[in-house]
Amino acid sequence: MIANLSSSPHLFARFSSSRIPISDFPPKSKTHNLFKPLSSSPCSIIYRDTPIPFRSRGLRDGARKKFPTCAIGGLDLGVFESAQSVLEAAAVLTAIIVVHESGHFFAAYLQGIHVSKFAVGFGPILAKFNSKNVEYSVRAFPLGGFVAFPDNDPDSDIPADDVNLLKNRPIFDRVVVISAGVIANIVFAYVIIFAQVLFVGLPVQESFPGVLVPEVRPYSAASRDGLLPGDVILGLDDVELSRTGPSLVSEVVDVIRNSPNRKVVFKIGRGTENVKINITPDKNVDGTGRIGVQLSPNVKLSKVKPRDLFEVFRFSGREFWGLSSNVLDSLKQTFMNFSQSASKVSGPVAIIAVGAEVAKSNTDGLFQFAAILNLNLAVIYILPLPALDGGSLAFLLIEAARGGRKLPFELEQQIMSSGIMLVIVLGVFLLVRDTLNLDIIKDLL
């Protein structure tokens, strides 16, 4: 399961205020609490703004919310909140996988094509049952799924010339089966957006100057020098941040990272007044600066409820095409500037991390997270690469161009095997990289 989430700064900002983490957690104490108590009292209430990758926090109806976490005897109950949000994000990802594989399955089943297996996940089987000659299973590693056909299964008792084997069907029938997964994800994305508009409302974003500080880590440089959650950064070193938009966050991050152990003058909007604060970023092990905050564009969200069913369809269509355009544009930028944007390609761990932060911030945000993820995966799976749906469609296109003559079986298998190996290597790389980039792992290291 691979997705390009590089479009997220402006996509996720539509249902929550984007943020980019610019520092690691503060130096470790004797415990590994993610948020340390502020006092030695038995129950310290720590008000923390829940973060979102790309980086976001939900703002419901324009209000900036804070959630109390109670740390009792060294136990941070925010861990349980995090576990719940991770499960919610994993459930969203699993649902998307099931929808994709169900597209393939039902496209074959409704055409009378033989199917031998339907699996969610890879690796050892955790649970399975058989029905109508199909094995349904849940496997150990929920990194994807597959639908298997008995076409080249030596243990199958179906004759090789059976007209209901996938390989013996006309090209059009096979195109329908192979493309059905992508079509299912696109339809699912629209259904999710439709449900959001109908039951929650259409999110509308209003941007304001500056960069919001939703969270300040305890014991960090920012906390030490007087920066507070809810402050808005309006300028740095006497240079005003006059524009609006997600790019402001990156600019502030760059100034901080390039200023280790050097005083930076922050112009801060705090309530109805402006103040100046001198902050000296701490030095990371890699030589960059950090002040221990999380940043987001300074935006407020409201929701527009449709007045009738016609507006539900109109709002849903507008939102669907807007998100689709952003996803396609993001993918185009990734290929045009691959050396700079390759790091934004994400695997299952990073995807679940994004979804977990969305869920912690605002459950409503899971609607657009799921829709965006569906569209991302649909676009990526349709790429003409071996081991992806688009690669199989490319073989069918070649077959059609050759007048119905298939490529030699051995050549096709070699190409597909190399593609599968490439996907496995890329998947393992993303799994390791994304796991090591998790804040909790950085804190332990």
Automatic annotation (TrEMBL):
Cellular localisation: Membrane
Annotated SMART domains: PDZ
GO cellular component term of the entry, any: membrane
Pfam families listed in its UniProt record: Peptidase_M50 (PF02163)
Keyword vocabulary terms for this entry: Hydrolase, Membrane, Metalloprotease, Protease, Transmembrane, Transmembrane helix, Zinc
GO BP, sorted A to Z: proteolysis
Gene3D superfamilies per the UniProt record, alphabetical: 2.30.42.10
TM ranges: 175-199, 415-432
Domain of life: Eukaryota
UniProt record similarity statement: Belongs to the peptidase M50A family.
Record-given protein name: Membrane metalloprotease ARASP, chloroplastic-like
Species in which this protein is naturally found: Salvia divinorum (Maria pastora)
